[in-house]
Specification:
Blueprint: H1 12-19, H2 57-63, H3 70-89, H4 111-114, H5 126-133, H6 166-174, H7 180-183, E1 187-197, E2 205-210, E3 217-221, E4 236-240, E5 246-248, E6 251-253, E7 256-257, E8 259-261, E9 268-270, E10 284-285, H8 296-301, H9 304-309, E11 312-314, E12 320-322, E13 325-329, E14 332-333, E15 343-344
């Protein structure tokens, strides 16, 4: 005769008994939910605004660029419509005389199981992660906004998802967000007051540059092989002002002049601010607000300028930019004389 086996799982009542000693996730006895049993008051239907039409799942899928089959439309439409109708019913409840509700708080919510008391750990590489994420590859898609908001309801003739147009690419670059590394670099407009040959190096000029400070900055630049002193004198230039002073052939240089160069570094042109820019004013990026300048030691230690500089370019109109964000002064964008799609440094 076969013996009766014990069940692998306890019956529902036994399971409930074993679990009863644990704190409940929500205790109605500790809340004002139990109390008045007065009937729910309802707003007269005539006082309610009309409900919007029930959603068309095929149109919703099209807006979200999601493929949906006829079978899925047929299966999900009645379910979605019932949910929408249920939410519509909530408008009829009159809450004008409802009592104020006070949440039960942490006690009795199994806090020891789902609320952590340990201190959060700081992720030290967050700046590098955010910087690198700006260059992650991915396709851009156009999704019309509900109601046809300006700049989002693309309408007929929108380009395909697989091949973004030049317009899409330009739009994407205009939405680049400058990072804190860039916004903390102190780039200033400077005016070159004098230019001399370096006494110890044929490749260097020594410039005195007015930067709106107590006295002009002495800056050594490697521009001598590429342009005459007259090409530099009197120009409104772009000065990287929070670099650590550097000895150049025995002379301390307090800053750096920016220039554009081709890939072979055979052609170099000074980067200049437009007429009307004020010596000492700080360069901005696409209108974004700068932050407090990084200290010179931080810039050197974390190689912040090197990370920023690699993304500085000139565009097709010779304007300087960082990942598409224009390098701006109060008088307009900084430019070079003729080099397009060139490196800036």
């Amino acid at each position: 005769m076969l013996a009766r086996a014990e069940p692998l799982f306890a019956p529902p009542r036994a399971r409930a008994t074993r679990r009863s000693s644990r704190a409940r996730a929500f205790d109605p006895n500790s809340t004002p939910l139990q109390g008045s049993h007065a009937p729910v008051k309802r707003v007269p239907e005539s006082d309610l605004p009309p409900l919007p039409p029930l959603p068309d799942l095929r149109e919703l899928a099209k807006m979200a660029a999601i493929d949906i089959t006829d079978e899925e439309v047929e299966e999900w439409t009645p379910k979605v419509h019932e949910i929408v109708k249920w939410f519509g019913k909530l408008r009829e409840i009159d809450l004008s005389n409802a009592e104020e509700y006070e949440a039960p708080g942490r006690e009795g919510l199994m806090a020891d199981e789902w609320m952590r008391d340990d201190e959060p750990e700081y992720f030290e590489d967050v700046e590098r992660m955010m910087k690198e994420s700006a260059h992650w590859d991915g396709k851009f898609i156009k999704v019309p906004a509900v109601g046809g908001s300006v700049g989002t309801d693309f309408g007929p003739g929108a380009t395909s998802v697989d091949e973004p147009s030049a317009t899409t690419t330009a739009s994407a670059s205009s939405t680049v967000t400058p990072n804190e590394e860039l916004l903390g670099m102190e780039l200033k407009v400077g005016k070159v007051l004098s230019v001399e040959n370096h006494p110890e190096s044929e490749k260097l000029y020594v410039e005195m540059v007015e930067c709106g400070e107590d006295e002009p900055r002495l800056i050594c630049s490697g521009l001598a092989p590429y342009m005459s002193k007259d090409d530099v004198l009197g120009k409104l230039v772009v000065v990287v002002a929070n670099l650590k002073p550097r000895n150049m052939a025995g002379m301390k240089s307090n800053g750096m002049l920016l220039a554009a160069s081709d890939a072979a570094h055979e052609n170099v042109e000074l980067l200049c601010a437009p007429e009307g820019a004020v010596p000492g004013e700080r360069i901005t990026w696409g209108g974004a607000e700068n932050v407090e300048p990084h200290g010179v030691n931080k810039v050197a230690k974390k190689k912040i300028w090197e990370d920023v500089q690699k993304d500085l370019k000139t565009d097709a109109t010779k304007g300087a930019n960082w990942n598409g964000l224009p390098m701006l002064t109060s008088a307009g964008q900084c430019t070079c004389a003729s080099l397009t799609d060139a490196n800036v440094g």
